[in-house]
Design brief:
This protein is α+β, with helices and mostly antiparallel strands. The protein contains eight helices and 16 strands. The longest helix is centred in the C-terminal third of the chain and has 18 residues. The structure holds zinc ion.
Length: 327
């Protein structure tokens, strides 16, 4: 993919006031108990099975995205699409969840993405508390996979002192994604105000350098866990397909951001996309594939727990949350 200064700026310019690395470092490990608070939602975890593999969805919180960040947005079309999903409509901003997932394949306990940072949005940063509520300790995590390196996916990687939060975990990361964020030409071409995002990503990844594995393309990374390149949103965004006993689930990261709008209007993009056209191409091809194959997906910003099916609906698609299952 050709990365131009313009496309980079396009992706960064709309990012809200970004955290300095120190603020990123301050986000992990703050256990905020939600279970006992009057008026709180249920604890933010949800269990799902894929054959013999146990999946735990973890809610990190939510963030409000202004509709002005949506490419292709049209108020009347948005209102109609939102009504079809039974969500409340706002022409100003849309609340989207930030989800992460733990998968256990019998050998490894793998965390896919680590939520956001309170400095990025004060309504984020609850991943570790919800992990605790789900009975998973940070030291239980043996491996970390990241879909990409945006701030809402790498928040809990390190403690306040900058050391590994998941001390027994090794990082397995997309080479394209890692290299993009560590490319000094990219950093130099980034406006000064937005360089902290790059510096923060580098800072939270650094403690994991020891034992870090990099990969490209489609590969079986762990038993039953295979990578799937999903470029466009970022240079090296990766999806992960978990398979066991004839069942599967695709973790698709940020292929789309709005449950309310982008199944109905998959041609709509977001200002965070590094390459809007490639992101759209990836999204359209993937929606076609998962709807045809009836392959369930897990989305970082799909309504929590973010696990469900994509159904064809006329010229577009419809999201069908996975039915509850006993685990
Ligand atoms: Zn995201």
């Amino acid at each position: 993919m050709k990365i131009t200064k313009r496309s980079l700026l396009k992706s960064l310019v709309a990012v809200p006031a970004l955290a300095a690395p120190a603020l990123v470092l301050a986000s992990a490990g703050k256990a905020i108990s939600q279970t006992a608070m009057p008026g709180a939602q249920a604890p933010g975890f949800y269990r799902h099975r894929v054959g013999d593999i146990e999946v735990t969805a973890l809610l990190d919180g939510f963030t409000d995205i202004p509709t002005s960040f949506i490419f292709g947005y049209d108020e009347a079309a948005a209102k109609e699409a939102t009504a079809k999903t039974y969500h409340p409509f706002s022409n100003e901003a849309i609340s989207i969840p930030v989800n992460a997932y733990v998968i256990k394949n019998g050998t490894d306990t793998i965390l896919i993405d680590t939520g956001g940072i309170t400095a990025f949005a004060p309504t984020l940063g609850k991943l570790t508390a919800n992990m605790e509520a789900a009975g998973i300790k940070p030291e239980d995590i043996t491996a970390i996979l990241l879909t990409h390196l945006h701030p809402d996916h790498i928040g809990a990687l390190v403690k306040e002192d900058g050391s590994k939060f998941f001390e027994n975990a090794t990082l397995t990361i997309s080479e394209d994604e890692y290299n993009f964020m560590h490319n000094d030409d990219v950093r130099a071409a980034t406006p000064e105000d937005f360089r902290p995002m790059i510096d923060a990503a580098r800072a939270v990844l650094a403690p994991y350098a020891d034992g870090q594995k990099m990969f490209t393309g489609e590969q079986e990374l762990f038993a039953g866990v295979t990578s799937l390149p999903l470029p466009g949103h970022t240079a090296g965004q990766m999806g992960y397909i978990v398979s066991s006993n004839g069942e599967s689930l695709l973790f698709w990261g940020d292929v789309l951001h709005f449950t309310t709008l982008q199944f109905e209007h998959p041609e709509w993009g977001i200002a965070f996309d590094l390459d809007v056209d490639l992101a759209r191409e990836t999204r359209l091809a993937l929606l076609e594939r998962v709807s045809t194959e009836r392959m369930p997906i897990a989305g970082a910003h799909v309504d929590f727990p973010g696990i469900g099916y994509v159904e064809k609906s006329g010229d577009a698609y419809r999201y069908v949350p996975t039915p509850w299952m006993p685990v």
